[in-house]
């Protein structure tokens, strides 16, 4: 059951509080082509609700979310 | 055949009229308060909106106009009342105070150092980010006049314009989200 996701760009958003993670990601996603994937790493617990909300509104897709004790890793596919 | 063409044209004009009436993916916000905490919230929401793919328009009125004063620019030729107001009101984003727990400036200073420690962007930084993201800013002409502020003492913000209530209402009418802060 290893569904490897090909990451095209990694964004380190560690230590950034609201609203920086989504502001950065909204800029960063424009650097990849439609269909490509960004891996965003955040330490802001608010990201857990904010990233899906951002993705739904901006029309992008979160493929997978990983959560460790301190970090939240989102795999976001540019679809818009 | 002619009938169908006419119907099509009618439908087209109806759709266009509806399109004009449908609120766009836009956020219109009145920034009435001149407090640090409220101004920060306003800018966080506005920049967040652009990140979400919305358009964001901010209208600064009454106490809010102080936030946009430049701390460097000096203007001359003000009357006594305007000078007094200019002296009493905060000169720009770095001078505005908390709405609560200001405690003669101590509370605000503590909050600012706490924000720095926790990596929270300052109001000046938020204004810069808003300009980078293309948040549109309007300033209420009547408030400026009341407070005795001149256009030349406002910050250099790209596309900053001065307006009245009609401009806000036009924007708000075409926005899905409207706010008063």
Overall description:
The complex is a heterodimer of chains A (80) and B (181). Chain A is an alpha+beta fold and 80 residues long. Chain A contains 2 helices and 4 strands, in the order βαβαββ. Chain A has helices at 20-28, 47-58, and strands spanning 9-13, 37-42, 61-67, 72-77. In chain A, strands 1-2-4-3 form a 4-stranded mixed beta sheet, covered by helices on one side. Chain A is globular. Chain B has helices at 2-21, 36-51, 80-88, 106-117, 123-133, 141-147, 165-173; strands at residues 24-31, 55-60, 136-140, 161-163, 175-180. Chain B has a single domain, classed as Hypothetical Protein Ychn, Chain: A, CATH 3.40.1260. In chain B, strand 1 (24-31), helix 2 (36-51) and strand 2 (55-60) form a beta-alpha-beta unit. Helix content of chain B is 46%, strand content 15%. Chain B is α/β, with parallel strands linked by helices.
Task: Please specify the SSE layout and strand pairing.
The complex is a heterodimer of chains A (about 80) and B (about 180).
Chain A: E1 9-13, H1 20-28, E2 37-42, H2 47-58, E3 61-67, E4 72-77
Parallel strand pairs in A: 1-2
Antiparallel strand pairs in A: 2-4, 3-4
Chain B: H1 2-21, E1 24-31, H2 36-51, E2 55-60, H3 80-88, H4 106-117, H5 123-133, E3 136-140, H6 141-147, E4 161-163, H7 165-173, E5 175-180
Helix pairs in contact in B: 2-5
**Which class best fits the helix and strand makeup of chain A?**
alpha+beta
- Count of helical stretches of chain B: 7
The CATH architecture of chain A can be given as 2-Layer Sandwich
Oligomer: heterodimer
Low-confidence stretches of chain A: none
Count of helical segments of chain A?
2
Q: Major sheet of chain A: size, sense and barrel closure?
A: 4 strands, mixed
Average pLDDT figure of chain B? 93
Number of strands of chain A: 4
Distance between the termini of chain B: 56 Å
Strand content of chain A: 25-35%
- Series of secondary-structure elements of chain B, N-terminal to C-terminal: HEHEHHHEHEHE
Provide the domain count of chain B.
Answer: 1
Write down the domain tally of chain A.
1
User: What portion of residues of chain B belong to β-strands?
Assistant: 15-25%
CATH class of chain A: Alpha Beta
The largest beta-sheet of chain B arranges its strands as 4-3-2-1-5
């Amino acid at each position: 059951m290893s569904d490897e996701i090909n990451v095209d760009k990694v964004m380190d958003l560690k230590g950034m509080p609201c609203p920086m993670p989504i502001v950065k990601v909204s800029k960063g996603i424009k650097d990849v082509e439609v269909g490509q994937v960004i891996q965003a790493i955040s330490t802001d617990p608010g990201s857990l609700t904010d990233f899906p909300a951002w993705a739904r509104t901006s029309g992008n897709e979160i493929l997978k979310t990983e959560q460790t004790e301190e970090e939240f890793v989102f795999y976001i596919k540019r679809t818009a | 055949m002619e009938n169908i063409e006419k119907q099509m044209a009618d439908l087209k004009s109806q759709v266009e009229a509806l399109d004009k009436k449908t609120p766009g993916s836009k956020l219109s916000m009145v920034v009435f308060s001149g407090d640090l905490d409220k101004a920060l919230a306003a800018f966080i929401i506005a920049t967040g909106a652009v990140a979400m793919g919305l358009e964001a328009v901010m209208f600064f009125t009454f106490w809010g106009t102080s936030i946009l004063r430049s701390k460097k620019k000096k203007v001359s030729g003000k009357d006594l009342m305007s000078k007094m107001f200019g002296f009493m009101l905060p000169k720009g984003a770095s001078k505005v105070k908390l709405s609560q727990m200001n405690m003669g400036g101590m509370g605000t200073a503590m909050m600012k150092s706490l924000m720095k420690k926790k990596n929270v962007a300052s109001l000046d930084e938020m204004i810069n980010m808003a300009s980078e993201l293309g948040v549109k800013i309007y300033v209420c002409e009547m408030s400026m006049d009341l407070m005795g502020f001149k256009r030349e003492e406002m910050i250099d913000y790209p596309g900053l314009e001065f307006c009245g209530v009609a401009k806000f209402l036009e924007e708000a009418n075409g926005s899905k989200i409207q706010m008063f802060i």
